[in-house]
Write a structure and sequence with these properties.
By secondary structure, this protein is mainly alpha-helical. The protein is about 75% helix and about 0% strand.
């Protein structure tokens, strides 16, 4: 006897499989980052974001990468660039995924690590 999955179960299963695949791709990007290949890590995450711009996990992963880069920054000239990159990731995540909690999770480290930027107006915040 052949069993056919009902559409809601089938759609949920497909979404779960896609989410798992994207988590794996994010893990590959962070593996490149840990090996010191920042360019490759960034390229992978940007490529994923281009293909799935409304997926909150990808915005979160890209924001976390930008945050880690900020924390590793040793040159004062690069700090503002890294701060702006991270904040733009958080804002893009909010705009792409308005119902997701992940943009808020991205913004929390920004408030903690970038206190001078916490005085921005509400429309500039995720």
């Amino acid at each position: 006897m052949l069993h056919v999955m009902d559409p809601p179960t089938s759609a949920a299963t497909a979404q779960a499989a896609r989410d798992e695949e994207l988590r794996g791709e994010c893990a590959k990007a962070f593996a490149h980052y840990k090996k010191g290949n920042l360019t490759r890590a960034t390229q992978l995450l940007k490529k994923l974001l281009a293909r799935h711009p409304a997926h909150p996990l990808l915005h979160y992963a890209y924001g976390r990468l930008a945050h880690r880069l900020f924390l590793e920054q040793r040159q004062p000239a690069g700090l503002n660039e890294q701060i702006e990159e991270f904040l733009s990731c958080a804002i893009a995540a909010r705009e792409a995924c308005p119902g997701s909690l992940l943009p808020c999770l991205l913004y929390a480290p920004a408030c903690y690590d970038f206190p001078t930027h916490s005085d921005r107006g509400p429309r500039d915040r995720p």
